[in-house]
Write a structure and sequence with these properties.
The chain has eleven helices and ten strands. It has 273 residues and is of the alpha/beta class. The structure holds NADPH dihydro-nicotinamide-adenine-dinucleotide phosphate.
Length: 273
């Protein structure tokens, strides 16, 4: 699978794994842990989680899946805006590390902008970096103007990006690409059925011998500097998502997708889930 620069010169595969809603149902735990592990073994090594997901249940499940494999993964977690004071960020990180069963995060993100000044949050991130508890920090759900004003050192911005939500192509994505700041695309499958049942995806999928979901994912990563983090709770979905990394869309595919899912022609408000 193609790789891209992430933080501090670290290269990562352009498809990783999301984990929102994983770990919330005890009956599904074994399957979810196996799916996540299989994804890691197959190269989907960027794992995205957050203290918010299942009130820590996702981080605990990730901790179980990476036990004994910490060095094989690039761990991303997020702090709630209401915990993003200087001391709050540090305490939230300690709790996340405990749940994840590790001594460091690779990237720690502010989940979305809140009431604490960003400079204060970044002070907390810097403190954690100096203590070796995080390797880098970033933001999530920031639009271009706010991102431009952010203190130096932001490793990534994680935002909604899929065929049904292309607003960031107007200015945010080009700005991040020019700045050399990788963009983490969340909900790259549009959270499932509504987007994935579009007949054009199946049609293009048939042409390439893959599924519509794989086309949707291949489309997200066609852009340089984009890392997609689909969430999958079954082995079958994980394997398909790995396979999407090898799908190359041609000009005709991209044109039909542009007609069905038009690119923005003007500035759009940032879509947020
Ligand atoms: P996704 O777009 O990743 O869609 C997940 C859905 O797609 C699930 O129903 C999953 O089913 C299904 N799916 C996965 N793979 C396939 C496949 N190959 N074929 C068909 N269906 C498939 O939605 P998410 O909202 O989960 O986004 C991904 C991740 O992004 C989150 O898990 C989270 O880590 C992050 N995120 C970050 C946000 C932020 O504010 N920073 C906001 C939202 C998400 P199944 O589970 O059955 O496999």
């Amino acid at each position: 699978m193609r790789e891209t620069d992430f933080f501090n010169g670290v290269q990562v595969p352009v498809i990783g794994q999301g984990t929102w809603h994983l770990g919330e149902d005890a009956a599904k735990r074994k399957t979810e842990v196996s799916a996540l592990r299989a994804g890691i073994d197959a190269g989907l090594t960027v794992i995205d989680t957050a203290e918010m997901y299942g009130d820590g249940a996702s981080e605990e499940l990730v901790g179980e899946a990476i036990r004994g494999h910490r060095d094989d993964v690039v761990l991303v977690s997020k702090v709630y805006p209401h915990n993003a004071s200087r001391s709050g960020v540090v305490a939230a990180c300690e709790r996340s590390l405990r749940r994840l069963g590790t001594d460091r995060l690779d990237v720690f993100l502010l989940h979305w902008s809140g009431s604490f000044p960003l400079s204060e949050t970044v002070d907390g991130f810097d403190h954690l970096r100096a203590a070796g508890k995080i390797r880098s920090w970033g933001l999530s759900n920031f639009d271009r103007d706010d991102l431009q004003r952010a203190p130096d050192g932001c490793a990534t911005n994680q935002v909604l990006y899929n065929l049904g939500s292309r607003g960031i192509e107007f200015d945010l994505l080009p700005w991040q690409q020019r700045a050399g700041m990788p963009l983490m695309a969340y909900s790259p499958l549009g959270q499932g059925p509504t987007l994935l049942e579009h007949p054009l995806l199946a049609e293009i999928g048939d042409k390439h011998g893959v599924t519509g979901a794989q086309i949707a994912l291949a489309w997200v990563i066609r852009q340089p500097g984009v890392i997609a983090i689909p969430k999958a709770s079954s082995l079958e979905h994980v394997q398909q998502n790995v396979g999407a990394g090898a799908v190359v869309l041609d000009a005709e595919d991209c044109l039909s997708l542009d007609n069905a899912f038009p690119a923005p022609r003007s500035k759009q408000p940032l879509d947020i889930l």
